[in-house]
Specification:
This protein has about 210 residues and is α+β, with helices and mostly antiparallel strands. Helices cover about 30% and strands about 25% of the residues. The protein is built from seven helices and nine strands. It has helices spanning about 25-30, 45-55, 110-120, 140-145, 150-160, 175, 195-205; strands spanning about 10-15, 15-25, 35, 60-70, 70-80, 95-105, 130-135, 165-170, 180-185. The termini are far apart. InterPro entries: AcuA (IPR024699), Acyl_CoA_acyltransferase (IPR016181), GNAT_dom (IPR000182). Keywords: Transferase. It holds the Pfam family Acetyltransf_1.
């Protein structure tokens, strides 16, 4: 499968300044931009900056960034699922995972997350993919937002729906371990029936286990 990447961008006006949401970005451009010190959800900012540069170098890797002038203040990552995850077991070239989405606290609540998802899906190539995201409540910033688990889940669902992702049932153990956890996915319009069936098999691998 040839992983074409077509650049798209949207401008977003907020009370804290104008943001550019753009991508997929080339690794060289990401490397030359500053990375905001408040992007700490997954690892230290310098390490996360390097991580998204490395993802952008992957054939399927897609990085959409939120830029305030020359500083990255948010991003989303798309790449093949981790080899240790269930979703990689089918070795599906056309299955891609929204691995991370992060925006600094200053710009939360301004529609940035939804815009990240919209720009991600503006590339026609995404119609060739099954795009998934796994949401686990223990990754959510409940303390920083002041939301409870169910309020945060509702916010996450609305954000993902902006990119066309919908709830899908699964028996994956970590997702099944708490009712707030969920699998969301978007099946592109050009995804073939065989791939959809393969995805269904990945979603329910324990149905015959007793």
């Amino acid at each position: 499968m040839i992983h074409n990447k077509t650049y798209n961008a949207m401008e977003l006006e907020t009370k804290h300044g104008t943001l550019i949401v753009e991508g997929p970005m080339q690794s060289e451009i990401i490397a030359n931009l500053e990375f905001h010190e408040d992007l700490i959800a997954f690892r230290a900012p310098a390490q996360q900056h390097k991580a998204i540069i490395d993802i952008a170098k992957l054939p399927e890797g897609r990085i959409i960034i939120v830029r305030n002038e020359q500083k990255i203040v948010g991003y989303s990552t798309f790449l093949h699922p981790d080899p240790l995850e269930r979703w990689s077991q089918g070795n599906m070239e056309n299955l891609i995972e929204l691995g991370a989405i992060e925006v600094i606290p200053t710009f939360r609540g301004t529609g940035v997350g939804k815009t990240l998802l919209r720009v991600s899906m503006m590339d026609d190539m995404m119609e060739d993919y099954i795009t998934i995201t796994t949401e686990y409540y223990w990754h959510w910033d409940l303390k920083g937002t002041g939301l409870n688990v169910w309020e945060y889940r509702k916010v996450m669902e609305k954000m993902m729906q902006a990119g066309g992702l919908e709830y899908f049932a699964t028996d994956e153990p970590e997702i099944s371990s708490h009712p707030a956890n969920c699998l969301m996915a978007k099946i592109g319009s050009r995804v073939d029936v065989k791939s959809i069936q393969q995805f269904d098999q990945l979603r329910f691998m324990n149905r015959f286990m007793y």
